[in-house]
Amino acid sequence: MLNRRHIRIKVMQSLYAFKGHESDDLVKDEKFLMHSLDSMLDLYLSILALLTELHKKSKDYNKKLQQKILGSESDRNPNTKFQDNLLLKIISNNRLLQDIITKRKLNFWDLDFEYVDILFKEIKKSSLYEEYMNNPETGLKVDKKFILDIYTEIIAPNDKLYDYFEDKKLTWVDDFPVVNTVLLKVLNKVKLTSPETRLLPDLYKDEDDKEFAKELLKKTILNNSKFAEEVSKKTTNWDAERLASLDGLLLKMALCEFQKFPSIPFKVTINEYLEIAKEYSTPKSSLFINGILDKIVKEYQSNDLYPKTGRGLM
């Protein structure tokens, strides 16, 4: 689920929260980082819980129609295509998934049901819903396309839902785009014969990524003073406030990768931190960071310092 850039962002947020202090006691810092990374999975699961509640809502809606005292013929025999959606059934009936959601206390939609109501109403009045309900075709392929379409066009872009997630956990705002991409990818691959674990992707691609997160945090903190001194020598003409801001932190993290992670090419590190700076810092930050890192790399290479090893080092 996590990619390296998102791991870097999480490390950046953790360092910023603790002001990048230099300490040998890293337990608190690492615990904060691991919790922040783990919360991404919580967001993913809470969205699946939301889809489960929308499925329940469709059943309740049809039941109420049928119970109308003065209901019409269409009320007594409602179109149950949404209720019978095979992808929603796979999600709702996945006991492993639902048990994990319950255990992690992520089905908070019972209390915050108004968001389910808002989204259900938005879905019902959409052209996607009308086309789907009137489509004579049936099967997982059709049902899956409908759910992916309404998620992409109605659920994910909903401002009230976005604000809700932001209030629930601030870091979820940064996680949301990544989780959305993962969710759509996972749901698109679901088959009727898929095991229950199909809906439960691993948080990390492999153990190396998890170790990368811990080591980047630890080594940046332990070498904070050294990296700060090296950066200051290359930034004599820059505002001190810029170095005390996020830009200075990103430079230290980049230096950490330059010096402590020999398998990561200089170019990869520079590109990653330029993209992070564009998203999280000031408009001029990427220009500033690129200039400093380019100067440092040229110096390393001319002095044969911190040589890189491994694949992809062209």
Automatic annotation (TrEMBL):
Does the keyword field hold GTP-binding? Answer: no
Q: Which SUPFAM superfamilies match?
A: NusB-like
Task: Show the coiled coil region(s).
Answer: none
Keywords, A to Z, come to: RNA-binding, Transcription, Transcription antitermination, Transcription regulation
Q: Which residues form the NusB/RsmB/TIM44 domain?
A: 205-298
The entry sums up its family as follows:
Belongs to the NusB family.
* Name this protein carries in UniProt: Transcription antitermination factor NusB
